[in-house]
From TrEMBL:
Binding-site residues for phosphoenolpyruvate, renumbered to this chain: K32, G104, R132, Q181, R357, R400, K424
Domain (Cytidylate kinase) ranges: 443-651
PANTHER family xrefs: AROM/DEHYDROQUINATE SYNTHASE, PENTAFUNCTIONAL AROM POLYPEPTIDE
Gene: aroA
Protein name: Multifunctional fusion protein
GO CC annotations on file: cytoplasm
Main localization, broad class: cytoplasm
Complex formation: Monomer.
MF annotations from Gene Ontology: 3-phosphoshikimate 1-carboxyvinyltransferase activity; ATP binding; CMP kinase activity; dCMP kinase activity
Length: 658
């Protein structure tokens, strides 16, 4: 996954800074729904098909791996295209085990096609795939003579498929109210029968736009399905797939929704390229939903653009989402930025996706401070009063949870757990996200002890009207809390647990720890030594990392402390490293202590500062040193006013470059 400015990627999480704006242009990856349909149709067709702008992701990788195992020819074409040599409906490999991960767009259609083929196949996936129902599709295929056995729980994968029994039935029934992929799979498989076959849909057909995609894709390969409303679909006798030669895959309309919403919330304009308003993908109508919320939408043949309302905020809506089942997830997080509640209806299909998306979305939106009412097929979202809460978002091994929830970064810093899940459909999503998002600016001020960091940082924050973070206070609080708990400062695991659970409140003139005012207590020499020691523990620094990043709020942050510019905010707009002679710093510290009525010796303070400098510069974690991209300011001969003026001058120049 690509890395963009303002992002910190690890194996298990990604921290997103709060964004103050979003604008620019994004070229979309190919549609997942189209890519896997076209891959399978090209494989079943007569002739060679070149697929341009094909999505390269986990889902399409599963389909391609399965097709190769089945004997389909797959070769690189021009540029990023792939060439598929079709098998004319007859797979050369008659026995195979196929692992399809959590790719429903591969599992369901392949189940139908292989059930009407003449082979012995086993289909399996990840544990979540084995929890996604497939019984309605299997029941329909059995009406056509298919021999399918469940290898685990009845009605769910994994499946064992054997050659079908002779069958002359020309009408088959399938439920339409669980997943449109069942009907899609049936329709794509029926040309293999050679006889006219009609599919009757039982119950209401959900996600109808995806059936439009299926019918349009089949037509491109020469099979015209007759449709009688949304109840009857007939595949004529003698239907067979023929390669159209070159096929360009449209950009993914579901993926477009995230960036269109970013533009509508974050000011914009933000343009997505690779898809236009006449797309065959139903999710393109997400733009209409944004328009109903007050966003400004414009479009051309191959692009759509979104911007925020000229006046005021977006407004909540009440919407039947049957026509945009996947993109509707993006509306759930867009609702956080609207005036009034938003209700999303007719979304029962979310329950049987990569996760139970209704339950998952309700859980994560509540973490952000929203009030959420969850029903069998609807969500009602009331945006939080007083702004979004910083939160760690769980993604449930679901790419759309990761991408949809990322929009909340326009209101708060976020941690996205398991961000790699976006590889299912949009491997470089977070890199593109960072390119169009403008992060809240940060000024990182570091330096030697008693060099004036805190005083200067506070004054700079006050002058700008920005937030202030005294990161040292968090380490001091950790040291004090460990002392209160009777924990040794070198007990890394226990101290890290204390840091992660700090019960602290920062007021204008007070710091409260577990209900106790501790502003003076954390400034004692003993706790200063303890803070230096606990700050050298990697587990403690990791425990406090997101807590520090959560201070990055609009309109900006001045962050004071060690590794603010190198680790916590590596994309800080301005980085400043303060220093001063040890003698001057000892005099300053002595003056501070005397003013507080505390006895102190300049000689002792000087010795302590020199020992601390040595210890801080030699430690393995976050050693005290000037970053290569930091401005150096020696405050030995500076007044506080002149030092603040110098920092503000650097800030002014930095803001002009943004």
């Amino acid at each position: 996954m690509g890395r963009g400015p303002g992002e910190r990627v690890s194996i298990d999480h990604l921290d997103l800074p709060q964004l103050c704006a979003a604008r620019g242009t994004v070229h979309l990856p190919g549609s997942k729904s189209l890519s896997n349909r076209l891959l399978l149709l090209a494989a079943l067709a007569t002739g060679r098909t070149e697929l341009g702008d094909l999505l390269l992701s986990d889902d399409t990788a599963r389909m391609l791996a399965a097709l190769r195992i089945l004997g389909v020819g797959v070769e690189p074409g021009e540029g990023k295209a792939l060439c598929i040599t079709g098998v004319a409906g007859d797979f050369p490999v008659r026995a195979a085990d196929l692992f399809l991960g959590n790719a429903g767009t591969a599992f369901r259609p392949l189940t139908a096609v292989l059930a009407l083929a003449r082979g012995d196949y086993c289909l399996s996936g990840v544990p979540r795939m084995h929890e996604r129902p497939i019984g309605d599709l299997v029941d329909a295929l059995r009406q056509l003579g298919a021999q399918i056995n469940y290898q685990g729980v009845e009605g769910f994968p994994p499946l064992r498929i054997r050659p079908p029994m002779p069958c002359s039935n020309d009408v088959v029934q399938v439920r339409g109210d669980v997943s449109s992929q069942f009907l899609t799979g049936l329709l794509m498989a029926l040309p293999l029968r050679g006889i006219e076959t009609t599919v009757e849909v039982v119950g209401e057909l959900i996600s109808r736009p995806y059936i439009d995609i299926t019918l349009a894709s089949m037509a491109r390969f020469g099979v015209e399905v007759r449709r009688d409303g949304w109840r009857r679909f007939t595949v004529p006798a003698g239907s067979a797939y023929r390669s159209p030669g070159l096929v360009q895959v449209e950009g993914d309309a579901s993926s477009a929704s995230y960036f269109l919403a970013l533009g509508a919330i974050g000011g914009g304009p933000l343009r997505v390229e690779g898809i236009g308003p006449d797309s065959i993908q139903g999710d393109v109508r997400f733009a209409d939903a944004l328009s109903a919320m007050g966003a400004r939408i414009s479009a051309g043949a191959h692009w759509i653009e979104a911007a925020a309302p000229l006046v005021g905020r977006l407004r909540g809506i009440d919407l039947d989402c049957n026509h945009i089942p996947d993109a509707a997830m993006t509306l759930a997080t867009t609702a956080l930025f609207a005036d009034g509640p938003t209700t999303l209806r007719h979304i029962a299909s979310w329950r049987v996706k990569e996760t139970d998306r209704i339950a998952a979305m309700a859980t994560e939106l509540r973490k952000l401070g929203a009030s959420v009412e969850e029903g069998a097929d609807y969500l009602r979202i009331d945006p939080p009063v007083g702004g979004l809460h910083a939160a760690a978002i769980d993604t449930y091994d679901d790419h759309r949870m990761a991408m949809a929830c990322s929009l909340a970064a326009l209101g708060t810093p976020l941690r996205i757990n398991d961000p790699q899940t976006v590889a299912k459909t949009f491997p470089d999503y977070f890199a593109r996200f960072a390119e169009v998002g403008q992060a809240v600016p940060v000024i990182a001020i570091d330096g030697t002890s008693a060099s004036g960091k805190g005083t200067i940082a506070i004054r700079v924050a006050q002058a700008l009207g920005w937030h202030y973070l005294d990161s040292g206070a968090l380490y001091r609080l950790t040291a004090l809390a460990a002392r209160h708990a009777g924990t040794a400062w070198d007990d890394e695991d226990t101290v890290a647990a204390i840091a992660a659970g700090l019960d602290v409140e920062f007021g204008d003139h007070a710091i409260i720890l577990a209900g106790e005012e501790v502003s003076d207590a954390i400034r004692s020499e003993e706790i200063s030594v303890g803070a230096s020691r606990v700050a050298a523990l990697p587990a403690v620094r990791a425990a406090l990392l997101f807590r520090q990043r959560a201070f990055r709020r609009s309109p900006g942050l001045v962050a004071d402390g060690r590794d603010m510019g190198s680790v916590v905010f590596p994309d800080a707009m301005i980085k400043v490293f303060l220093t001063a002679s040890a003698e001057m710093r000892a005099m300053r510290r002595h003056k501070q202590l005397i003013e507080k009525g505390m006895a102190a010796s300049i000689a002792d303070l000087l010795l302590d500062l020199r020992e601390r400098d040595e210890r801080d510069s030699q430690r393995s974690v976050a050693p005290m040193q000037q970053s290569a991209d930091a401005e150096l300011l020696d405050t030995t001969n500076h007044t506080i006013d002149s030092a603040v003026a110098q920092v503000l001058d650097w800030v002014s120049k930095g803001l002009q470059k943004r």
